[in-house]
Amino acid sequence: MNHRINRSIRVAEPVLDGNEALYVMDCLQSTWISSRGTYIDRFEGLLAEFCQVPYAVVTNNGTSSLHLALAAAGIGAGDEVIMPTLSYVATANAAHYCQAKPVFVDCEPNYLSMDPERIEEAISPRTKAILTVPLYGHPVDIDPIRQIAQRHGLLVIEDAAEAIGALYKGRRVGSLADASSFSFFGNKTITTGEGGAITTADEQLASRMRFLRGQAVDPSKNYWHPEVGFNYRMTNVAAAIGTAQAERLDIHVQRRQQVAQWYFEELSEHQDIFQLPWTAPWAQHSYWMYTILMRPELAVSRDEWIRLLAESGIESRPVFYPIHSMPMYFERSDKYPVAERCSRLGINLPTHGKLTRDDVSYVCRHVIAAWNSLYRTQSKPHVRAA
Ligand SMILES: *Cc1c(COP(=O)(O)O)cnc(C)c1O
Asked: Does residue 268 sit in the same domain as residue 237?
């Protein structure tokens, strides 16, 4: 292998090739840089339209948006929220901020989101909501989940931070649940630097979220606050970037789908070694992160694999550690074998709109070479012991 770093490929990178600079300059020149200004409404309008719902409420990040959705939906002390253990930690933290208890469910082995078959056994008299996470851009199988929710009188909320642009039976992620939360962190499909949003068809919920987002100020009496609210407002500058990003949302999603297509072309002949992303017949994947899992019998150290890729100038990331394995949510449990296996065997490969066909073949060459060299080393330890 060539150990010279001749490239630097980041795992994620924003693409700001629309009206971003123009709109940000407009904020600066007009001095509307705080959380009032026209871009906030424009961004919310574009998001609602894209997600095929009447309302979008933007916030200062994707953790606050999820917290806001749960709080506005009335999740509170002692309530239980069912969620996948294989997710970003923000999913559980948002419930924790409401003094609710996250109740974890294992994931499904093909598309890695919460297994609908495992939800019902997690329901208790305290359960208030099912919090679904379309992981890495693949939608969850929402219809059976909604049926379960209906039977038990539960809310369905989506932490859709990773799945803007994905489709479920032709419907947009963002329109599938009572409320859906998005993130616009710099590594997400569209970005505002830091930012978030909730989409919903529920007018009351939308207006309650707007109320709580702005420190719960009485709409008809300024500086009067009848409840404890939050300052979760997005700035007009962030919304200006978001407006420009959202104007080209289809393009941003299509670029990732193109990158995924290239990965499939390069890696499909190696499916004896790697499980490649799977798409359910009812889904259109938005490929936030192209994710591969080693076959368990051919596994090498995931962390060594990542380290070797870094030596070739390729940034990658481990599949999330299951949230139940972290100290504050720790459970000694054998209830989550699929999540634990995916976490141990999986990495996210660089996925963003600036990658070229050539970048993708460079990445794949090194993914295979690095796996190969680790596999050979570990299968003949005595040969390499020196
Ligand atoms: C990115 C992300 C969030 C929100 O992250 P922020 O950094 O707060 O915007 C929440 N949940 C999941 C699953 C995510 O991937």
From this structure: no
Indicate whether this model's pTM tops 0.70.
yes
The CB of 266 under 6 Å from ligand 1? The reply is no
pLDDT per residue as tens digits for the range 117-167? 999 999 999 999 999 999 999 999 999 999 999 999 999 999 999 999 999
* Beta bridge partners of residue 157, listed in sequence order: 131, 179
* CA 176 – ligand 1 centroid, Å: 18
Q: How far is the CA of 353 from the centre of ligand 1 (A)?
A: 19
Residue 335 maps to which CATH number? 3.90.1150.10
Atom 6 of ligand 1 has which residue's CA nearest to it? 62
Cα 152 to the center of its chain, rounded Å: 27
Measured in angstroms, how far is the CA atom of residue 160 from the centroid of ligand 1? 9
pLDDT tens readout for residues 46-64: 999 999 999 999 999 999 9
